[in-house]
Amino acid sequence: MSLRRRIFAGGALATAAVVLTACGSQGIYSLPLPGGPALGARPTTLHLQFSNVLDLVPESSVRIGGATVGKVESIGIAADGWTAEVTVKVRDGVTVPADARAQIEQSNLLGEKYITLVSAGGSDGRSLPSGATIPATQNKTTAGIEEVLGVLSLVLNDGGVGQLKPIVDELNTAMSNPRQVRSLITQTDELIKGLNEQRGDITRAIDGLAALSRRAQSQTTQISRILAELPRGTAVLNQQRPEIIEMIKQLDRLGTVGTDVLSRSQQETIENLLALRPTLRALAGAADDIVTALPFVATFPFPDAGVDAIKGDSMNLFISLDTRLINQLEALGAGKPAPTYVPPKYGPGSGRGGNR
């Protein structure tokens, strides 16, 4: 075999070896970078989930406090099929706090992207075990230089300034009359003060609505039954519509007749009310006596003291009869002076004056 053929065969074998090696690995990303971090014999493996990993690549560095402590092993899709999952390895002996959060940052304007692990300060000394997963809700991605330049380009190319001009013009128009602006501010202040003074009423109204909602919720079954019966009731009312219309017409006629009767008898009604005036005055003058006698109305013909003696339709009665003649004569007033008037305890002559 000639030297030329040997060189060609050697090159082909080397190329095939490289291709076969790449097929069983992650390609060029599987090659270790010069000066990469030493992971030790038992590095800690962590799975970090992100909503967007930007252009992060395997073999990127993992840092804690600015110091490189690991590297990105691989980038894939999480089990939910929608979240990016980055597998990283942290050097053996480095403790990752249990409350650690991951951020994708950029070293400089055109530098590489890397992952930094930060602690929220509430881990109580606990650490993440190997194989742990930090969910996407705890991780975030900082704005890349592409996003910053895109927003800057939008502003510099009049992307948003033109839309701001009508807003500024309308604000200038609204503020051109200081008197109206001052009046608006004063009215707004009064409105806020009024609402502040009625906070208690507003709170009670909201509490009442909440109580009504809870009561309605507890009576859902009854409300559903009523709503189910409403169509049937509406159908019955629809069937009786002619009778209802006729009843309303009759009520209208009754109102017309009643108005005519009241108009004709207005003078007689006034005279009857005027005739009742003496009777009402007499009742007002005897108001104290009426009030005193009212307790006896419920127990007539017995006094209220006899209520305890009445049991159903029977009554206990005790009578003491004195048959001595002298006592009877004394009871009739024989040998006694003329009787004297004793005013009643209550009433106009009691000396207590007026109504009680």
UniProtKB/TrEMBL annotation:
Q: Which NCBIfam families match?
A: Mtu_fam_mce
Q: Which InterPro entries match?
A: Mce, Mce/MlaD, Mce_C, MlaD_Phospholipid_Transporter
PANTHER family, A to Z:
INTERMEMBRANE PHOSPHOLIPID TRANSPORT SYSTEM BINDING PROTEIN MLAD-RELATED (PTHR33371), LIPOPROTEIN LPRN (PTHR33371:SF15)
GO cellular component entries: extracellular region
Region feature Disordered, mapped onto this chain: 337-356
Query: What is the designated name of this protein?
Result: Virulence factor Mce family protein
Q: Which Pfam families match?
A: Mce4_CUP1, MlaD
Q: Locate the Mce/MlaD domain: which residues?
A: 43-118
Natural source organism:
Tsukamurella paurometabola (strain ATCC 8368 / DSM 20162 / CCUG 35730 / CIP 100753 / JCM 10117 / KCTC 9821 / NBRC 16120 / NCIMB 702349 / NCTC 13040) (Corynebacterium paurometabolum)
Tell me where in this chain the Mammalian cell entry C-terminal domain is found: 125-292
